[in-house]
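Handout, section B. The chain below has 71 residues.
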Amino acid sequence: MVLRFLLLPITSPLMGVTWLGEKILEQVNTEIDDKENLSKQLLALQLAFDMGEIAEECPCQACGNVSCSYL
């Protein structure tokens, strides 16, 4: 217990850096998972479009905007 108290000025910054590294790793893993999920969704949409399940239409046809740059 006394040794732990005496080493606290040395071990505290190391524990802080370790904690920070773990938090950064968690964030990176979350972002990688998000990118992978997005890629899977885009691939599924592309396949559905290629198979004719999704029609190609102007996005403004749904709202009826006549001043669309697509028209």
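Note. The CA atoms of residues 24 and 30 lie 10 Å apart. Compare this with the example in section A.
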